[in-house]
Design a protein that fits this description.
With 499 residues, this protein is of the alpha/beta class. It is built from 22 helices and six strands. It binds a DNA duplex (14 and 14 nucleotides) through α6 and α18.
Length: 499
DNA sequence: ATCGGCTCGCGCAA
DNA sequence: TGCGCGAAGCCGAT
């Protein structure tokens, strides 16, 4: 047992991004360093992998990368499985011949994977995993921390700003933006390596994992990693939520999506992003959600293409324009990638027990919603009618069909989609429940802090009151399908998703 | 097409 | 204590 601080004095992973989940010490007679990849499912711009590589070199031990996929979690379906499995195939390819043991494990039955992490940890000198603030991951980490006896590190690769860099919840984008404008320059200096495995040699690769582990938890076969429906058929997951066509998962594919966005869409992002027919959005959110693409890579690629340097930065006291010193469409995108993405992580990180609860809404919003909770609803739909897009609102039905079929809703219509549900349910709590359920079940970027930002924004989070006071809404911002139709040209969208 | 007012809380200047 | 300001709105007036 050795004091880890001595070893890791020269770590390039910022200390704000590394947390320990237990009091364990490094066991220098372990057989390997274990990186348990959970939310940063990529090989580049990954502080967790980088940290594991550092440990491996410092201790002179081989590196084992475990990427696992359970079947027993809520909403497990062909859709999410295919996306994650394709990501595993990409990682397997990227890591082959790089001197690490990559072990892709896929459960065949609920609970089958239980004990795998523990068994590997028993052979490990130190265990590193990804820090992530939502869905079941915090619970899974806590449960693993109770069992793992060696040093167990959580590494935050989520955003450009470490989650632990903030001390409080930001209740408006404006106040968070002002904080970013004062503080982000420091964090921009500490970016993850584009290829954590590149410089220096890793200690001799382990031939194989211990046989008793391999026999119980074998690596997933290649056909399963294609994510083909036929390969998924035997798994006990929801086959009714199908694979999204034309959007395979994985780091490699995510990089292609990013390149296409830069080439074809970024320059008109500010003017066109609210128009569903203009196809100007990045489409990156599923890749960001599963960690197939890191926010740092997105930023780096844009910064390089736009000639960004620290000298561009100009604090604007929280105002949007001009902070990055870049073209307006680029600023508009960075506002999404950084301000809006990371304010969501900020909230989930600081309110781990409340981020999905009605009570986490601002008080003015709860007050006004509660006052109008008993208002008569002009129309009520059952969950099933909504899920199956059988409402009387053509715009809403189209958005819902996009969600069910393609695993996403266009950014702009997503707001309208949520506002309608508030009108069609008996209470705002019920609305919240329906929105979370539909989004978690069908959206490839669901269960992400940002998905919850979007859903809770519908009910007033990060927003302000608006007049006039209306039934059901109270002073929550109102949006109507009629006005949206007038404002936005979405003929093609309505045809494409019109049944 | 564009504008102000609507309404609340926050941060900052005074 | 006052003032300006705010993810994407709405409505009515010009």
């Amino acid at each position: 047992m050795t004091n880890p601080d001595v070893f890791m004095r020269n770590s390039k992973v910022p200390h704000l991004r590394v947390n320990t989940a237990n009091d364990g010490l490094v066991r220098s007679d372990g057989s390997f360093v274990l990186y348990w990849m959970t939310s940063a499912r990529r090989t580049s711009y990954n502080f967790g992998l980088q940290r594991a590589v550092e440990w491996s070199r410092v201790l002179g031990l081989p590196l084992v990368v475990l990427e696992a996929l359970r079947v027993g979690y809520k909403y497990a379906s062909d859709r999410f499985h295919a996306f994650v499995l394709q990501g595993m195939a990409s990682n397997q390819q990227s890591l082959s011949g790089r001197g690490v043991v990559y072990h892709p494990y896929v459960e065949r039955a609920p609970g089958e994977g239980k004990g795998l992490v523990m068994s590997l940890a028993n052979h490990a000198a130190v265990v590193i995993t990804d820090d992530y603030p939502s869905f079941f991951l915090p619970k899974m980490i806590a449960s693993a921390a109770r069992q793992i006896s060696v040093r167990f590190e959580l590494v935050d690769s989520n955003g450009l700003v470490p989650m632990r860099a903030t001390q409080q919840v930001f209740t408006t984008a404006f106040s968070f933006r002002a904080w970013l404008q004062k503080n982000i320059a420091t964090h921009l200096k500490n970016r993850p390596s584009a290829d954590p495995l590149q410089d220096g040699v890793l200690p001799a690769k382990l031939g194989l994992l211990p046989p008793e582990i391999l026999s119980k938890w074998p690596a997933a076969p290649p056909d399963l990693l294609t994510g083909a429906s036929s390969a998924l058929a035997p798994l006990p997951i929801d086959h009714g939520v199908g694979v999204v066509s034309g959007m395979p998962g994985g780091e490699r594919e995510g990089r292609n999506v990013l390149a296409r966005f830069l080439r074809d869409k970024l320059s008109r992002y500010d003017s066109d992003r609210n128009d569903p027919d203009a196809h100007a959005t990045s489409g990156l959110s599923p890749y960001l959600h599963f960690g197939h693409v890191g926010a740092h890579e997105v930023f780096d690629v844009i910064a390089r293409a736009e000639g960004f340097s620290d000298a561009n930065l100009q604090a604007r006291g929280g105002k949007r324009e001009g902070f990055w010193g870049l073209r307006p469409p680029v600023e508009a995108f960075l506002e999404q990638l950084i301000t809006w993405r990371e304010v969501g992580f900020n909230l989930c990180f600081h309110l781990p027990h409340d981020y999905m609860r009605y009570e986490s809404l601002p008080l003015w919003a709860q007050r006004t919603l509660d006052e109008h909770a008993a208002d008569r609803r002009a129309k009520l739909y059952t969950r099933q009618e909504m899920e199956q897009a059988r409402t009387g609102d053509a715009v809403w039905n189209a958005a819902q069909r996009e969600l069910v079929r393609d695993g996403r809703i266009h950014n702009y219509l997503r707001m309208l989609w949520g506002k309608r549900v508030l009108e069609w349910t008996l209470t705002p709590r019920e609305a919240l429940d329906v929105l979370i359920e539909l989004n978690d079940k069908y959206a490839l970027d669901g269960r992400d802090p940002n998905s919850y930002s979007g859903i809770f924004w519908i009910l007033g989070r990060y927003d302000r009151p608006w007049a006039p006071v209306r039934p059901v809404y109270g002073s929550i911002r109102y949006m109507s399908s009629t006005n949206t139709l007038k404002k936005i040209d979405m003929k093609k969208y309505l045809v494409k998703y019109g049944r």
